[in-house]
Amino acid sequence: MTDFRVGFGYDSHRFAPDRPLVIGGVVIPYELGLAAHSDGDVLIHAVCDALLGAAGLKDIGTYFPDTDNTWKNADSTVLLAKVVDLISDKGWKVNNLDCTLILEKPKMKPHVDSIIARLSALLRVDAERVAVKAKTNEKMGFTGAGEGIAATAAVSIVR
Ligand code: MG
Fold first, then answer.
1. Domains of the chain by start residue, with CATH
2. What is the pLDDT of residues 44-94, one digit of tens each?
3. DSSP string, the chain
4. CA–centroid distance, residue 5 to ligand 1 (Å)
5. Can you give the C-alpha Rg of the chain in angstroms?
6. Which conformational region is residue 146 in: left (phi greater than 0), alpha (psi within -120 to 50 degrees), or beta?
7. Which of 43, 48, 40, 28 is nearest to 123 (CA)?
8. Terminus-to-terminus CA distance in the chain, angstroms?
9. How many angstroms separate the alpha carbon of residue 77 from the centre of ligand 1?
């Protein structure tokens, strides 16, 4: 009998000057980055929370608190690798990931395949098990006003 779980994650970060924009472990050329204690990789943070939630664990801040200088400007792919280790220790394997970025700018289409390649390697699954979409918020709300980026992630895991 296969044990099967789903998890959902959400994150948002505000744009800030003089920082690289890192989304899904890929540096995106843009005039603004995202403010955060870590590198601000909003997509990876949503994916981490989805995985942790699926495995019945606590949220990302529990494992990587922003009061801990170890994670200052941290490469979020390192956090995701640690989360994958955490759930692997409990016998879980990623089945698939489906995520959505919500932002007005920059256009993500040219970067989606690189992000999928990066995420699938980190999650140790084939690229066809990872979906990354991006959409605008039709100029509504904080993402619509271009104040920041939001990301959602749904995962399924099996053991
Ligand atoms: Mg975050």
1. 4-158 (3.30.1330.50)
2. 999 999 999 999 999 999 999 888 888 888 899 999 999 999 999 999 999
3. ---EEEEEEEEEEEEESSS-EEETTEEE--S-EE-SSS---HHHHHHHHHHHHHTT---HHHHS-TT-GGGTT--HHHHHHHHHHHHHHTT-EEEEEEEEEE-SSS--GGGHHHHHHHHHHHHTS-GGGEEEEEE--TT-HHHHTTSEEEEEEEEEEE-
4. 23
5. 15
6. left
7. 48
8. 9
9. 12
User: What is the Å distance from ligand 1's center to 10 Cα?
Assistant: 9
- Residue type at 84? V
**For 82-130, how does the pLDDT look when each residue is reduced to its tens digit (9 = 90+)?**
999 999 999 999 999 999 999 999 999 999 999 999 999 999 999 999 9
Ligand 1 ion: residues within 5 Å (CB): 11, 45
Q: What's the pTM?
A: 0.97
The encoded tokens of residue 66 equal 């922003």
pLDDT surpasses 90 at 14: yes
Per the CB < 8 A criterion, the answer to whether 155 and 119 are in contact is no
pLDDT in tens, 31-44: 999 999 999 999 99
